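In this supplementary section we document a worked example of the pipeline. Step one takes a protein sequence of length 79 as its only input; no multiple sequence alignment statistics are reported here. Step two produces a three-dimensional model, which step three serialises into structure tokens for compact storage. The input and output of this example are shown verbatim.
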Amino acid sequence: MKVVETRQCRTCPPTKVDTDWLLTIDAEVMPQVTDAEYQERLRQCAVCPFYQDDTCLKCGCYVSYRARLATKHCPVKVW
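The serialised model returned by step three reads:
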């Protein structure tokens, strides 16, 4: 189980979120990118000004979840 501490916004208190359960729900019905592509997406997100603690401030998604799914794309079109 991967648990990350994240915030909804700057004023919200941190919460612990289990991101693995999201992928197990969608893994059977949604195609996933390769591990190499996933790592590249995470690398690009890590330097983005909209990235904060595994959350995209542009769209509000969990970055580790969105980056894994082949059908999802970056809201600012980086990947």
